[in-house]
Amino acid sequence: xxxxxxxxxxxxxxxxxxxxxxxxxxxxxxxxxxxxxxxxxxxxxxxxxxxxxxxxxxxxxxxxxxxxxxxxxxxxxxxxxxxxxxxxxxxxxxxxxxxxxxxxxxxxxxxxxxxxxxxxxxxxxxxxxxxxxxxxxxxxxxxxxxxxxxxxxxxxxxxxxxxxxxxxxxxxxxxxxxxxxxxxxxxxxxxxxxxxxxxxxxxxxxxxxxxxxxxxxxxxxxxxxxxxxxxxxxxxxxxxxxxxxxxxxxxxxxxxxxxxxxxxxxxxxxxxxxxxxxxxxxxxxxxxxxxxxxxxxxxxxxxxxxxxxxxxxxxxxxxxxxxxxxxxxxxxxxxxxxxxxxxxxxxxxxxxxxxxxxxxxxxxxxxxxxxxxxxxxxxxxxxxxxxxxxxxxxxxxxxxxxxxxxxxxxxxx
Length: 413
Description:
Elements lengths: L1 E3 L9 E4 L2 E4 L5 E2 L1 H5 L2 E3 L10 H29 L3 H14 L4 H13 L6 H22 L2 H31 L6 H29 L4 H23 L7 H25 L1 H36 L4 H22 L5 H69 L7
Antiparallel strand pairs: 1-5, 2-3, 3-4
C-alpha cells in the first residue's frame, strides 16, 4: 500500500490544512507537489501509527539527530540549487532544533535577505550585519581551528555575494529612474548602498573582536575592510558620495593597526623563524658588500689594463697636436706669404708621413698588448658578470625577507 512518509520524522499522519499537508508528528508542512513525492510503497508492518502520541514516540525512537540530519540535507540541497525560499525555510527549522548552529543562524538570515525587494534592501543588509556577531562567535566558540577557517571563509564568500547583489539592485534601480525625478531618490539609493557595504565593514569589525590574536583569521577581516574601502571609493568617484572621507580614513587606520597587530602577533608566536630570517638577511647583506667590493677590484684591474699608454701612442698624440697647430698656422698666413706657406705645407706633408708610420707602430703594439692580455680581460669580465648575478639574487632575497618580516611571514607561512 502507498503512504505519505514525512521526511523529517518518518511519520505517516499527514493532514491537509489550508492547502498544504501538515505532519501531525513534527509539524513539517508540504505543498501538494512536495506531498506527492512523499508517497511510498510500504507494508502494513512498516506503516507508522496514526496517533499523535505514537508519532511522538516514533520521533523519540528515531532520535532528534535523524530529523536534524534530514533538515540539513534538505537545507543544503536547497542552498546548492540556489533555492532561497526553501533554504530559508529549512534553515529556520534547523535553528529551532539547534540554536547553536552557526550555519542555521547565518543562512536563515542570509536567504531571507536574498529574497528582499528593492524597498527592503536596506533592512535586508542590516539584518545580515546584525547576525554576523553571533555567527562568528558561534564559529569561534564551537568549532576546531581547521573548521573555523572553512566556516569563516564560507561566510566571507557569501557576504561578498549578497553585498554585490544588494548594491547592484540599488544602483540599477536608481539608474532606471527618470532624470527629472532622480534627485528625489538619490539619498535613498545612497543609503541602500551604504547598508550593503556595511555588511563588509561589520564582518571586519566582528573578526577583529574574536580573532585579534589570530593573524591568519584576522587577515580575512582586514582584507574585507580593504575591499569595502576600495569599492566605496569607486562608488564615490562615480558621483554618489556614499561614505565620507573621515569614515573611510577611520577604516584605513583600522586596516593599518590590524596589520601591525597581526604582524606582531605572528612574530610573537614565531620568534625562531624571525631570528633565522634576520640572520639570513644579515649574512646576505655582508655577502653583497663583499661581492660589490670584489666587483670594484675587478673593474679597477680592467681599467689599469685598458689605460696603459705606450711611448709610441704618446709620441703619436704629440705629433697629432703639432699637425693640428701647423694646419692652423698655414690657414692664418696671408695671401702674400706664399714662400712661408709652401715651406710649412712641405713640413706638414712630412709630418703626416711620420704620423702614419707612428700610427702603424702604435696600433701594432696595442694589438700585441691586447692579445697578450685577452685571457686576463675575459676572465675579469666573466668574474664581474658572475658577481653581479650573485648580487642581484642576494638583493632580491633580501627584499623578500624584508617584506616577509614586514608582513608577519603571512605570505610565506
